[in-house]
TrEMBL record:
This is Malate synthase G. GO terms for biological process: glyoxylate catabolic process; glyoxylate cycle; tricarboxylic acid cycle. It comes from Sphingomonas turrisvirgatae. It is an enzyme of class 2 (transferase). Residues 309-543 form the Malate synthase TIM barrel domain. Residues 13-68 form the Malate synthase N-terminal domain. NCBIfam families: malate_syn_G, PRK02999.1.
Amino acid sequence: MIDKAGLQVADNLADFIETQALPGTGIDPAAFWRGAADIFARFAPRNAQLLATRDDLQARIDAWHQARAGQPIDAGEYQAFLRDIGYLVPEPAPFEVTSANVDPEIATTAGPQLVVPVLNARFLLNAANARWGSLYDALYGTDAIPGAPTGNGYDPARGAQVIAWAKAFLDRAAPLASGSWAELTSEPTLADPSQLVARNGDNLLLRHNGLHIELVIDRAHPIGSSDSIGLADVILEAALSTIVDLEDSLAAVDADDKVAAYANWLGLMKGDLTASFDKRGRTLTRALEEDRHYTATDGTPFTLPGRSVLMVRNVGHLMTTPAIRLPDGAEAPEGIMDGIVTSLIALHDLRGNGRFSNSRTGSVYIVKPKMHGPDEAAFTNDLFDAIEDLLALDRHTLKVGVMDEERRTSANLAACIHAVRHRVMFINTGFLDRTGDEMHTAMRAGAMLRKGDMKNADWIKSYEARNVAIGLACGLDGKAQIGKGMWAAPDRMADMLEQKVGHVQTGANTAWVPSPTAAVLHATHYHGVDAFARRQDVAPANAASLDALLSIPLANGRNWSAQEIRDELDNNAQGILGYVVRWIDQGVGCSKVPDIHDIGLMEDRATLRISSQHMANWLLHGVTTAQEIDAAFERMAAKVDAQNAGDLLYQPMAGNPDSLAYQAARALVFEGLEQPNGYTEPLLHAWRLKAKARALESV
């Protein structure tokens, strides 16, 4: 560690900031560290007080439920209690946000959004480049249409299916003046000629619902040569924005991890990030895509960005980091460090230091997760003010995305938005974390529904509707994104095409998808439904009542069979082990993890929070026993071992008392009641640090 203005900073972090992040920003290193030290001095105590408030509210809620054990919950009495303790705050007077200089990809266009772990450079580049993608490729290699390719080479029958689907899509998104795209034999005449906005050689660029479609016309191409108009591919504008994630999707527990994360964010902001990898014996190198150049219909040059607009998700208020220690020796709040360093790095984009421009309006987009209520949102707003002053930025250059994923935030959403009303650029429902917080907040109210039944609980329907209605009432339309959550099954694209259109129908102008391929397919939903037009049908009444939102998903005396209880325990235990073993042993924070039915699901800490809290709840209320939970873990350890048999880095858990991953998984359940707000990070970080120390000892 090295002293920097009274802060003790890890050597590699200090070196990164002074030799990589600061040069080109015009900020003197000594002035930077003095300013950073001042921010920590001002905000670390306030951060700690907010966390103490969380604990105090939880203790009061626990006591309230314990005093009424076995009694029905009266909604009026319950809400009066929550207001009395400050959990619910008064609604602000009607207002509209004043966010300015928000890029159109966020404020005025509707399309898919990716979330990608910052530590994986290849995935980062894939996501950033997912602004454009081939519809033909997305259809050909997935289950989006029935069947699958046969043989080792190109399958003409599968290709014919793909082309038929794509041309039917064009009939809907860009109808012809007469006939269909499948029958077309010459240059198309569109029913609405204004949809043709530009050309690139023979290629045609169309626009529909704010999104672009590029028709690749190439009669020399193997596909185009057999097509009646030479159509070789249909390229869709897909992931308009991407969240570069320092939070739920990665395992970053020390200075080494944080420096690697910050270095990748810097590579994106400078535009020089690359990733090399082996593919069938060849070394390939990936980099950021160039912009796309066309000639508009009036003959003038026409350029579109080649990449998603990038946001960065900082960590929340809970965790501290050993990468910086405060003058009293305590670890620094990690969220404050993230805010300072990621904003500093984004200066390179604002100063035009890189190959490309991320924000063309001069904003920095920071998504802030896991805030509990308006006081914590106000803390973030004040912190961003201070960071702007440190970096000599105009006020509200730093925009904030509010993850509406905690119960106290969703119940006070208008007040939370009001606290950041001058810089908010995003609100997003987070069903998974919201479910975990639902269970932990009401942990002592009684046994919860089975996990699979949560999606049909009254609170979730109210939550999804209120998020859009409140966002619109606060004036987010045209100024910020209103988003929806993740499609978690990356191999089930047919199901996604059938179901995820529901997110667009709510009036949300973005929703999360798990891959660039999924982004292309989800983009077709925004052509099928005009998200902004749907907002006219969103009733303000959807935001009126808290009764449904605060209804607790209790089982209310359901008498499950022994087999039903065993099945639920196995499902939870398998999900916990399958995720935790990669987190602890390999430092993988998000990946496609086979579920108990061997279906690959994208798992992160939010899904882990649900499973661990659910088992802790059933144990607390006597639905199950500690012995039954341990038996489930033992059974599922063997299953997870078998599911990972092909992974050379995998360390088996079954029958292995030394497995740190197995011990961590058990701790998440048996210590689940004591975890702050049911979060998994404290235990995961502690066990991951033990695993890293063990690995060093064995070298």
